[in-house]
Each structure stands twice: as C-alpha cells, then as structure tokens.
Design a protein that fits this description.
Strand content: under 5%
Mean pLDDT: 90
Number of strands: 0
Shape: globular
Distance between the termini: 43 Å
C-alpha cells in the first residue's frame, strides 16, 4: 500500500482535516490522487463545507473525477437550499449529460422548497429531453403534494409532451415509467395506469405498474393495489410490488392480510428462474419486511436469498449477490450476519465495497468504534479511506444533530 494513503487514512480516522488535502496531493499515482481528492471533496460537501469542497475539487487533475465532484457539490448545495451557488456550478459543468442531470436535481430541490416558478424555469433550460421531462414530472409531483392540483396536471402534461421528443425507444420507455410513477405518487392513478399500459418495454412497464401498486397501497386502496401487483409481467417487479403492498397493509394495522401478501411475494420470488435475479428479489423482500417490523419474516427471506446466491455458478455474479445481501442486512441492523456474509465474498472488490457499506451503516446508528474496526478490515486502501471518510461524515452529522437539540 502507498505510504501516503496510509497517512491519509490515519488522518481521516483522527479527524485531522487540515492535513488531509496536503497529504492527498503527495500521492504519486495520478489516478489514486484524483480519486482520493474527489472523495474528500464529496465528504466536505456532505457536511456543508462547500467552499473547501470546491477548492479541493478544482485541484483534481482527472477531468471526469473533477466533474463528478463538482456535480456532487452542486447537488449538496441544492439540498441545502443554496440554489444560486448550485446553479453556478451546474451550468459550468463541461459534460452535457452531467450538466442536464445536475440541473434536473436542482429543479426538483427548488420544487420541494416551494419555488415552483423558478423550478420550471430551470427545468426548461435542461438540454437533454429525458432529464427535462423527468424534472418536470418531479416538479408536478411536488405541486400536487402542495395542493396545487390544477397546476400539477398541466406540468405533468408538459412532461409528457417533452417525453415525446425522446428519440431512443429505450430511454422513452424508462422516462414514461418515471412519469407514471410520479403521477401515482400524486394520486393520479387513472392517468398513471393509462401511461403505464402504453410503455413498450416489458421491464419498464412492470416497474411503472409496481410503483402504481405501491402508491395505491399507501393511499389505502389495497384491493386495487393487490390486483395490479398480481398482474405484473416481470416476476422480479411483481414480487417487489406485492411486498410493498404488504408493508402498507402492515402500516395500516392489517397484520393478518399483510402476512398473507408477504407470503405471496416470497412465493413469487422463489419461482424466478435465474438464481441471481431470485437472490436479488428475495433480498429486496427481506429489506421491505425488516422496514415493516417483520423481523422473523425478514430473516427467513434473507436465508432464502443466501441459498439462491450460493446457487449462482458464476463467481463474479455470486460475489455481487452476496455483497447486496450483506449491505441489506447491515441497513436492516443485522450487523453480525452482514459481517459473516461479507467475509464469505470471494471477489476482493465486492468484499471491500460490502465492508465499506457495513461500516457506514454502523456509523449512522452511532456505533463509531465498531465502524472503524470494520473499516480497518477493508483490503483496498482507497475503499478503506472512503469508509473512514463516511464514518467521519456520520460522526459530524450526529454532532450537529446533538448540538441542535441543546
């Protein structure tokens, strides 16, 4: 491992932020140097230190890493309602695709803050038709949530008009699925269903119908939601939708019915032919069950997911599936099991990524010492550094939260 990376890792762990930049710039390998600086810039932005984040980002030599760092800073600024600064950065991004994406995120943040006129203005400036259409749909959803139903309807129609300018059939299907989902969240179920049925791609159509079923269930329309979920073509999306419907039922106190639908979701997932897709579907259901407080059911689903993952013949796909399970377990608070699974991962990169996410999840629930120990288990020095930076960010956020309570 580079001595310089060891130094930086120790500095992050000790919270010595003033020395990190100097040490990072001494890293000999240009790719490593750019990647580390990008991670530090993103960490600074995440804790609201925007000026320092920009200074660090501008020192990144590799153009793609520099652009991604500035993109992340712009989004963090928008989320902190610093819209003018966010726009200044986004509009200077060289890559047209990243620029469009950043402006779409900023427009959405403006809409969530109730600045609808300005959000529309920013959305209309987006070059890429896909991002422009998606931004308008997000704005319409925010308008509906604010009770501006008529204006939301007009903006949804504008989003659909823009979508028709998308030339690539695959992109169009994906965008229409997102618009249908946004309409469903705004409880415009009839319009959402009409759009979903027109989507050509079966996977995108299934995704849209899954989102609609979930939104209907959240609105208490359980019978319709269940009917729609049952008819979804793609098994992965069908099982996911059924699980979300079950979770909404549990939230409404309909525990017996919820348990039945969760079992239906598990049965649907277990019928998926490919072991990799089956493992992924079961992991998703386990996560949903855990969030719904169904700990025993979640544990069973995780076990089934592990069984499916072990059936995957390709070592790379198997490692990826185990990583997904380990991360999901950690996010569900099952840290011991998550670590056991992570240590079984054959691929070093997937194992490092899993351990990083476990460390981050531990830090987010205040288990800082244990998070650091997990981070130290990571083989890859860059991922270990990123894990320790994640821990530092979580610790700082927790400190701000405690200060706010005083």
């Amino acid at each position: 491992m580079h001595r310089e990376l060891s130094d930086i890792i120790a500095m992050v762990e000790a919270g010595q932020l003033d020395l990190i930049l100097q040490a990072a710039q001494e890293i000999e390998d240009a790719w490593d140097r750019s990647w580390v600086l990008k991670g530090i810039a993103e960490a600074m932005a995440e804790v609201g230190q925007f000026d320092r984040a920009i200074q660090i980002a501008q020192k990144i030599e590799k153009a793609s890493d520099r652009s991604l760092a500035l993109w992340g800073i712009a989004i963090a600024m928008a989320e902190a309602s610093q819209f003018d600064r966010a726009l200044q950065i986004a509009q200077k991004l060289e890559d047209a695709w990243e620029r469009s994406w950043a402006l779409a995120e900023i427009a959405e943040a403006m809409a969530k803050a109730g600045q609808f006129d300005r959000a529309i203005q920013v959305a209309q400036e987006i070059e890429d038709a896909s991002f422009r259409s998606l931004a308008l749909a997000d704005i319409a959803e925010a308008m509906a949530e604010a009770g501006q139903t008529e204006r939301a309807n007009k903006t949804f129609q504008l989003a659909l008009q823009v979508a028709q300018k998308i030339e690539d059939a695959s992109d169009l299907s994906s965008v229409l699925a997102e618009i249908a989902a946004a309409m469903a969240k705004a409880e415009q179920f009839d319009c959402a269903l009409q759009i979903a049925q027109k989507i050509e791609d079966a996977s995108d159509r299934s995704l849209a119908l899954a989102e609609i079923a979930e939104a209907m269930a959240e609105a208490g329309q359980f019978d319709l939601a269940f009917q729609i979920a049952q008819k979804i073509e793609v098994a992965w999306h069908r099982s996911s939708a059924l699980a979300e419907v079950a979770a909404a039922m549990a939230k409404a106190g309909q525990m017996e019915r919820s348990n039945q639908v969760f079992q239906t979701a598990l049965q649907a997932a277990q019928k998926i032919e490919g072991a990799s897709d089956r493992s992924s579907a079961l992991t998703g259901i386990a996560t949903t069950m855990a969030k719904a407080g169904q700990t025993e059911g979640a544990n069973r689903a995780f076990r089934l997911a592990l069984q499916a993952a072990q059936e995957i013949e390709d070592a790379s796909f198997r490692s990826s599936a185990l990583r997904e399970i380990a991360v999901a377990m950690a996010k569900a608070g099952q840290f011991d099991l998550a670590l056991q699974v992570a240590q079984e991962i054959e691929d070093a990169e997937d194992r490092s990524l899993a351990l990083r996410e476990i460390a981050k999840a531990l830090a987010q629930v205040g288990q800082i010492d244990r998070a650091v120990k997990v981070a130290e288990m990571i083989d890859d020095p860059i991922e270990r550094l990123q894990a320790l930076a994640d821990i530092m960010v979580a610790k700082r956020k927790a400190g701000k939260g405690e200060a706010g309570k005083e």
